[in-house]
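User: Predict the structure for this protein chain, please.
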Amino acid sequence: MAKKTARSLLSLPLLKGLEHGEVEHLAAGATEIPRSRGTVVFREGDVCTGLYFVFKGQVKLSLQTGRGQERVLQLIGDGESFGEAALFLGRRHLTTAEAIADSALLHVTKEVILFEVSRNPEFASRVVRELCRQLHERTLDLQSCTLLSGRQRVVSYLLARLPQGVNGSAVDILLPAKKGIIASRLNLTQEHFSRILHDLATDALIEVYGSTVRIPDVHRLRAEETL
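Assistant: Here is the predicted structure, written as C-alpha cells:
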C-alpha cells in the first residue's frame, strides 16, 4: 500500500521527478480520503493536521463573512495541494475547504511533512517555491480586485483559462465550477457576474452555452483587459 501511495505522490507536480525513496517517508504518513461533492474537508478554525493533495476532483477554499455570506478565495484542482499556511505557521485553518465535485484526496500528516522538510533540501525547496507561487497568485488577486473593473476581472479570468498555444482563433473553454462560485472567486455577486457575461455576449466577444464559453476572437477579448 505504501509503495502504491508513493507512486501516486510521484505523479503530483510538487513531487514529480523526486526519487522513489525520497517520498517513502511521505507515503508512510499519507491517507487516502475520498470526499463526495458537498463534503467539508475542514472548517475555518479547525486544527491543522496535515497537508492535502487533490488527485482528482475540485475543492474550494472560502471564508464566511459576519453576515454568513461566503467568499471563495481559491479553487483547488487535480494535482494541487492546500493547507500549507496553517501547517507551516502552526495555526488553525483560516478557511473552510469543501469538495465541490466528487474528489480523491490524499492527506499527509503535519509531523511527516515537517520532518521531510527538515531532512530533504530538495523537497523543502519545492515547498518554498509552491508557497511563493501561491503568494504571487494572492497578490494578483488583490491587484485584480483593487485595480480592475468587474468586466476586466471576468475577461482576465476567461483568458487565463485558455489552452496553451491558442493563436487567436475561436476556442471553447469550460467553466470549472458553478457561476456563483466563480463570481465569488472574482469578488462579484452572481447577478453582476451573469450581467457581465451577458454584456460580453451582446458585444459578440463571447458566446455562452451553459458551462461552456466560446471566444470567437481571442485578440478582441484580450483588448478588453486594457480598456
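The chain has two domains: 2-146, 149-226.
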